[in-house]
Each structure stands twice: as C-alpha cells, then as structure tokens.
Amino acid sequence: MKKEDCIFCKIASGEIPSNTIYENSEFKVIMDIAPASKGHVLIIPKEHFKDIYEIDAITAGKLFQLATVVARALKEVLHCDGLNVLQNNGLIAGQTVYHFHMHLIPRYEDDDVTIGWKEHSTEDIDMEQLRQDIKKAL
C-alpha cells in the first residue's frame, strides 16, 4: 500500500529516481543521497509502514535477511572496517522520514561518523520490576 505524500513510497515505486543497487517485489535498496560515509545505503520496504511499531514481523525478518546480504556486499566492495545498522523510530530518535527504513552505514578507521550515547547508571531503576513488566508485555 502506497501513501501518496511519502517520499520513500515515491522512490520505492520509481516515481522519484534513485541510485538503486537492488530491488525485488518487496524492497528497494538505494544509495543514501546524504551519506554518513562512503557506501551508506537504505533498505526501503515498498509497502508503507510508518515505523517499527507498524511493520509486521515477517516483512521485518525479510528486511533483515536482505540486510545481511547487502552488508556482505558492502564489506566486499568497500573493504570497510565495520558497519552500523541503524533504524530510527520517532522524532526524538532521529526519524525524519516516516516510512520504515534501515540504514547500513559502512565505517572506516578515523571516519568522522558519530553514533552513540552516554551510558547511564541503573541504580535508580527497579530492574527486576522493569524486566517483569516488559516480559509480561511480550
């Protein structure tokens, strides 16, 4: 299902051109137009899902299977030293396009890419209660 005002739906359908490196009936893999590093790609489902909360588990599983294949190809071609797999959900988490997509960002020694967070203490958190609450929700 395509959402009319979604740029990634338009890219996935071919309405907007892209530097596509792979495509099948369910996904399109494109070069990012504002890459964090050389070889940064996006994996976009052709069906519109706003975020991880909307995508079904089967499609998500297929997407991650594809990500492993693409990651190996990136490593073979680019000889990168590492790779970040990144997927943002919600504005506060850095999502700017509200169509589920996954970033594969090749990493190189001494690159200027920064992805990380400050580690916090768990002293003020009732970890056992939190564990039980999440487990119950599953």
From TrEMBL:
A motif (Histidine triad motif) lies at residues 99-103. It comes from the Bacteria. Keywords: Methyltransferase, Transferase. Residues 7-115 form the HIT domain. It holds the Pfam family HIT. The keyword Methyltransferase applies. GO terms for biological process: methylation. CDD domains: HINT_subgroup. GO terms for molecular function: methyltransferase activity. Its EC number is 2.1.1.-. It is an enzyme of class 2 (transferase). The keyword Methyltransferase applies. PANTHER family: ADENOSINE 5'-MONOPHOSPHORAMIDASE HNT1, HIT FAMILY PROTEIN 1. This is HIT family protein.
